[in-house]
Amino acid sequence: xxxxxxxxxxxxxxxxxxxxxxxxxxxxxxxxxxxxxxxxxxxxxxxxxxxxxxxxxxxxxxxxxxxxxxxxxxxxxxxxxxxxxxxxxxxxxxxxxxxxxxxxxxxxxxxxxxxxxxxxxxxxxxxxxxxxxxxxxxxxx
Length: 141
Hints:
2 domains; 74% helix
């Protein structure tokens, strides 16, 4: 009796799994009623699982067509996006270039002003030190 059941146990993933391609199988786990799940599961009753398995395995070509259709829709939307970006009017492109140039010039102006402010700060410190020391010199002399 056990020798009869050995092949069934060897190929049990074909019974409990859903084969979507030659080398791709969606594994399933049998969960008894009343057990606590240790992970997220999508649960089906046995009759619904058999129905789902039958539909998917019998309609493998339909699934491939649905995948091809979704890929073509995504490719179409990507092409539309690229064409809208490429068809931007020339004055928008010129405006973008002008704004980029202005951004670079403003950044260089800010950098120059920062250096100028730093120099003025040190000049003010030196001038204040000179004024303070000369005032102290006049008072003590």
